[in-house]
Design goal:
alpha/beta; about 200 residues; binds adenosine-5'-diphosphate; about 15% strand; binds thymidine-5'-diphosphate; 8 helices; five-stranded parallel sheet
Amino acid sequence: MRGKFITLEGIDGAGKSTHHAWLVEFLKRQGKEVVATREPGGTELGEKLRALLLSEPMHLETEALLMFAARREHLDKLILPALAHGKWVVSDRFTDASYAYQGGGRGLDPEKIKALERWVQGDFQPDMTFVFDLPTEIACERLAKTGAAPDRFERETREFFERVRESYLRRAGIEPDRIKVIDSRLSIPEIKKQLENIIATN
Ligand code: ADP
Ligand code: TYD
C-alpha cells in the first residue's frame, strides 16, 4: 500500500519545524514507517542547492528554477521511492512554497510556476498540507527570540511576508480538501491536538 505524503507550510517563524518533528514522532508511534525531509533539500544535491538558495543573491527566475531542480531530485531519489515502499513522507515545505514565495512574495508569474510544476511533478500532489498561519509581526518576534542569524529569505520585508501569507491562504481557499490552515497563535499543545484530530479524520 502506498504511504501518504504530508507537507507543512507557512511563513518563516510560523511553527513548521516544531510541528514537523512532533508529527514525525506521532506517526511513528502509530506504527507507520516515516521519512522526515525538507525543501529545498532532502537529498545530497538538494542540500547543496539549499545552501546556495539561502545565501546567494540571484535572479528570481534562477531562484524558482533551482527550487524546482532540487524538487526534481527530491522526488526521484527520496519522495517517490519512499511512498512506493509504503512509507509516509513528511516534508517541511514543497511546491505550495514556490507559489507563495516566488509567486506571491517575489511576484513571479504563477503560469511560469505552474509550467515548472507540471514538468517536474506532473499531477503529483501532497495528500495533505498543513499551512501554519500567523500574523507576520508575531512570526517576526518568534524568529527574533530564537537568536539564529536570519537567512536570505528571513531578511525580507514585512510586506514580502504579508504577500507570502496571503498567497498561502488564497491557495488554501481554493483547495480546502488538501490544505488545512492551522492557527499558529494557539499554544503548541492545542496545535498538536488539532493535527491529531485532522490526521485521525482524513
Ligand atoms: P518555522 O519552522 O516555521 O520557521 P519554528 O517551528 O522554528 O518555525 O518556530 C519558531 C519559534 O517559535 C521557535 O522558537 C518555536 O519554539 C516557537 N513556536 C512555535 N510554535 C509556537 C506556538 N504555537 N506558540 C509559541 N511559540 C511557538
Ligand atoms: P525554511 O524551510 O523556513 O527553513 P528554516 O526553518 O531552516 O529557516 O527555509 C527555507 C526557505 O526557502 C524559506 O524561507 C522559504 C524558501 N522557499 C521558497 O522560497 N520556495 C520554495 O519552493 C521552497 C521549498 C522554500
